[in-house]
Amino acid sequence: MKVVAINGSPRNGGNVSQCLDIMAKEFVREGIEFEVLQPGPRVHPCMACYHCLEKGTLHCVQNDDMVNEIIDKCIEADGIILASPVYHGAIAGSMKCVMDRVMLAAGCGENQFHHKVGAAFCTLRRSGGMETYQQLLGIMDAMEMVIVTSDYWGAVHGADPGEAMQDIEGTEVVAKLARNIAWMVKVIDAAKGKIDPPETHKRTFTNFIR
Ligand SMILES: Cc1cc2nc3c(=O)[nH]c(=O)nc-3n(C[C@H](O)[C@H](O)[C@H](O)COP(=O)(O)O)c2cc1C
Question: 97-142: per-residue pLDDT in tens?
Fold first, then answer.
């Protein structure tokens, strides 16, 4: 069983990374494999060419950043964590670029993410935590994922790298989130061959026009 996290921060070793380190310790304890995927700041935006959807490639035509590797690892994983710093009240720009391309290529046609476990959190200096947390959850909400929560909203406070570790409540929230993810991944795995997942099929796109 494996969980991957997409760290949308452009900086290494920052607050998002340190929160993911806390989660990593929980996954080790729970016997769950865990990998952090951090694409960094040089990520292309979606070009809206729709090649991925029209050809069903499950990959983006832009091949010179980490997005296709992220897609492959997300498809393989049992659980996916979306983590981003708050930038101007929303997810970081590079995270948005990643999400647009991952979800269009592998989520919007033959959805590769349905029934996978999903969870999210953000880090921030002061404001915009709820909006950003909900933005991340909303992406998975449209992918038929099993969303796992903690005992408070996923927003950990800290500005400079390491400050988030002083947010005791926030760090407890992400640790509990990791334990809940591990539990749900194990529950779904244990049900394999006993309780079938519900039937699902490709969505009918209607675009509000005839
Ligand atoms: C461009 C930019 C915009 C930001 N906007 C916000 C914001 O709207 N609200 C907030 O509380 N913090 C904001 N911050 C602070 C970051 O969210 C905060 O430092 C976060 O913990 C960084 O995570 P990292 O260390 O993993 O990169 C912003 C930082 C940058 C660089």
Answer: 999 999 999 999 999 999 999 999 999 999 999 999 999 999 999 9
* Separation between Cα atoms, residue 110 and residue 112, nearest integer Å: 6
Closest CA to 132 of 192, 100, 87: 87
Nearest atom within ligand 1 for CA of residue 158: 21
Tokens of 207: 């675009």
pLDDT digits (tens, 9 = 90+) for 134-183: 999 999 999 999 999 999 999 999 999 999 999 999 999 999 999 999 99
CATH 3.30.1390.10 describes domain 2-191: no
The answer to whether 112 and 75 are in contact (CB under 8 A) is: yes
Structure tokens given for 120: 């999210």
Q: Where are the domains of the chain?
A: 2-191
- Non-local CB neighbours of 41 within 8 Å, separated by 6+ positions: 10, 94
| Ligand 1, residues at Cβ distance < 6 Å | 9, 11, 14-17, 85-89, 123-128, 158-159, 161, 164
The SS3 of residue 197 is coil
According to DSSP, residue 148 is labeled -
The atom of ligand 1 lying closest to the CA of 128 is 9
